Amino acid sequence: MSWRLRLGALWLGLALAGAALAQRDSTHLLVYFSNARLATDPADCAAVFARDRDVPHTGAVATAALQQLFAGPTPAEKAMGWRSPFSASTAGLLKSVRVRDGTAYVDLHDLRGELAGATSSCGAAEFQSQVQRTLRQFASIQRVVLAIDGQPRTFYEWMNEDCGSANGRCNAAAFAAPGKTSGARP
Amino acid sequence: MYKIKFYKGDYLQRQQQANADKAVAYVEHHFNSSASEQANYAVVVVGSNASQTSRNWGRWYARAIAEQFGTKVAGDEGILVGGWNGRGDGNLKHTQMPALLLEPLFASNPQQAEIIRSASGQAALARVLAESIRRFFPKGGLIAFSVGHKYKTSAPNDRGAALAGGGTEADHAEKVLEHTAALLAEASPTPQPRMLRVMQGDQLLFEKQVDEDAVLVWSSDRNLLFIPD
Question: Which of A38, A94, A149, B196 is the one with CA 20 to 30 A from A116?
Fold first, then answer.
């Protein structure tokens, strides 16, 4: 083998090893935002589309995905028409996520003042579809229940939604009980 | 004769009080909001248990608003039955009379926010609402008004969405309802003949009675509104 071939093989090996190392050092996730340029019906506020995110390697993928979602689209994404109720001012919205029996219990800090538009019919569709689709990328999550400061009733009253079977009848115990934090299967 | 009463407290209490007062119609006024500044449609939420009168009234109002402001209607021909995924249903479903939750314009759309803030925009919104009430409740009676977000016992500081450029959804919804109340106080409760009106803002330019069944056709080529033979 000529020295040129040996050098090429060495470079290829190094590149593959680097890629494998980078893959192990990062976790690939999706977040879902709105984009009127991609939506077939501009009045469909629940229409969302995926954006890629790479974060430092983590097993807490639901936590990482929501942290990325709540930071909102980047300025470059905004310039391309990506929209969200979430932005830099809501980046700290997430308190915790617990996944139990297919349900993600998402506890939020009280940032209702920052998200005042999220209770309108369009705003609620944007808020909830972005959260739901971002979490449902994980096979282990089929349902999402939200709370503010551990109180689901506070969240659903803010959203003008009844406490019913879809949201666990606003049972706060699910947020207080110990559970596996963000243990979603990607 | 119309009597108007503004209801305060949490949404359930407002509905229960309107029931106890035997109101003939219930209106909760909001504005819509989106992360997109371009969103610009009219929509009305009716309860999951809404009567046909509520549905017809909501569709009529949404269409009239879309015509007034040159937008379009969303949902099922202008209405969302039971709200979006149940959101807004609790604001209406406990009423025992026809009830609407209005979202005529977007607070987040800068052009529409300007309309919401302006006296002429509020007057136009009030005119359409008053006309809808006269049309669907011609015998008069108690009309229940509820300002969305404002005066809730559980969240006294809630004012709803911020208007692009300044102001809040709730404060401006309240102004529209106050203006509507003033218009209804002037209104005759007796059924009115169908009138063709040409208006420039608030000013009436032309008015003529037309047959109830007449079909009006606008020809943009001839710049002519006519009734075909």
Answer: A38
Q: What chain A residue is nearest to B94 in terms of C-alpha separation?
A: A162
Task: Please report, in tens digits, the pLDDT of each residue of chain B (229 residues total).
Answer: 899 999 999 999 999 999 999 999 999 999 999 999 999 999 999 999 999 999 999 999 999 999 999 999 999 999 999 988 888 899 999 999 999 999 999 999 999 999 999 999 999 999 999 999 999 999 999 999 999 999 999 889 999 999 999 999 999 999 999 999 999 998 555 566 788 888 887 778 888 888 877 778 888 788 888 888 7
B160/A contact by beta carbon, under 8 A: yes
User: B23, B137 in Cβ contact below 8 A?
Assistant: no
- Which residue range forms the structural domain that includes residue A163? 27-176
**B87/A124 touch (CB, cutoff 8 Å), yes or no:** yes
Tally of domains within chain B? 2
The verdict on B31 and B41 lying in the same domain is yes
Assess B35–A contact: CB distance below 8 Å, yes or no.
yes
- For residues B202 and B122, state if they share a domain: no
The verdict on B120 and B206 lying in the same domain is: no
What is d(CA A96, CA A98) in angstroms, rounded to the nearest whole number? 7
A19 occurs within a structural domain: no
C-alpha span between B181 and B29 (Å, rounded): 13
B116 CB-near residues (< 8 Å, 6+ apart): B31, B105, B107, B122, B125, B163, B167, B172
B107 shares its domain with B205 = no
Same domain for B203 and B115, yes or no, is no
Backbone angles phi, psi at B216, to 5 degrees: -95, 130
Task: Give me A112's structure tokens.
Answer: 């209702």
Distance from CA of A154 to the nearest CA of B (A): 10
How many domains are contained in chain A?
1
Instruction: Detail the DSSP E strand segments found in B148-220.
Output: 195-200, 203-209, 217-219
* Owning domain of residue B213: 193-229
Q: Is B100 on the interface with A (CB under 8 A)?
A: no
Please name the residues in contact with B198: beta carbons below 8 A apart, sequence gap of 6 or more: B204, B205, B206, B207
